[in-house]
Amino acid sequence: MKIIITESQYKNLIESKEEKKSDLLYSMWMDGMSVEDIKEYTGLNIEQIIFYLKDKEIYIDCALAETLLPIVYRTSFFNKNFHGDNETLRLEWTFGAFITFSYEDPKYILRGYATPYWNKECVTPVDSSYFEEKETNEYEDDSWNNYTENLAYTPDSFNSIQEFIDFLNNDYPKELFRTIRKIVKKRSFN
After folding, report:
1. 144 versus 26: which is more confidently predicted?
2. Residue 9: its pLDDT value, please?
3. Residue 31 has pLDDT above 90, yes or no
4. Number of H helices and number of E strands within the chain?
5. Distance between CA 62 and CA 68 in Å, rounded?
């Protein structure tokens, strides 16, 4: 597919006010261009593109959320480190397709996978792959099959990229903390 941007469109993109840039990027998005295509044609980086699109009305279902997840993850809009009551949760994008987590509290360490909208479904499975009890140094590795939980809440749609980002930064980590605590309780060696 070849997209041609007129000289005036290019001039508007480079020399105009922020709203015109935002409107142009939005029209490119609504015409079916991917973020990578928009990046290629405009010279803007992904973070800039997300910035201009995030407040626009864009219906995001679970399939689109799965597509947007790695794009948003690569920006500073998505928090990757969370702290709770003596707890730490770190998220990483791994193998080009997964969000892995590393959870630690004073007694336990748990690592695993928690990728929202896995397989384009409105669900977030949480699989634990490593568990350690700090006091005894006992651990289990690669036994995640018996310890899978789903987050209690994974929305089935959003009205903007900003709503999606808000979920990833607020509800997702809260639900992930709750789910991880359940898994820790099941896996403890007591």
Report:
1. 26
2. 75
3. yes
4. 7, 9
5. 10
